[in-house]
Design brief:
mainly alpha
């Protein structure tokens, strides 16, 4: 006797389908697997990241902070993406200062730039050269610091 094919198919589908994971459970499973893979490398950095993930899975909290990827208060430049933008901005400022005030001291270059960067079109030059999204300083003190940090002013 042949069993009813629809009954057999329905039984197979309901038996094989595990209950869907919640978003939190799926995230925990993925991160747990990532921690296992990092531990398997034996690399010290991988072990540290795996330990941070494990702590987050058990204790909760701020994963970015546990990974050491959160900037300290007032230190946005500690973040790689921010640092790259600000480095490009600083390079553009130093380049402009070198072209506009060749041979001048850092303080004189900064004084010139502080007045020059008060205009929107001058700020646009720096923003364009550094790819945008970076604050353009106009303070004499900050401009001196940026110019002196360059390779030719040490």
């Amino acid at each position: 006797m042949i069993a009813d094919p629809f009954t057999a198919m329905a039984a197979a589908l309901t038996a094989a389908a595990p209950p869907p994971l919640s978003r939190a459970s799926a995230t925990a499973r993925r991160l747990g697997r990532a921690a296992e893979l990092l531990r398997a490398t034996g690399d010290q950095a991988g072990l540290e990241v795996a330990e941070a993930i494990d702590r987050w899975l058990v204790e909760g909290g701020d994963l970015a902070q546990l990974l050491g990827a959160r900037a300290r208060r007032g230190r946005r430049r500690d973040l790689p993406a921010t640092d790259a933008r600000m480095q490009a901005r600083d390079d553009a400022i130093r380049s402009l200062a070198a072209r506009a005030c060749a041979g001048s001291a850092a303080s004189a270059r900064a004084r010139f730039l502080a007045s020059f960067l008060q205009t929107p079109s001058a700020k646009a030059i720096i923003t364009r050269e550094c790819g945008g999204a970076a604050y353009v300083p106009t303070s004499h003190r900050q401009l001196v610091r940026i110019i002196r940090a360059g390779p030719d002013m040490k």
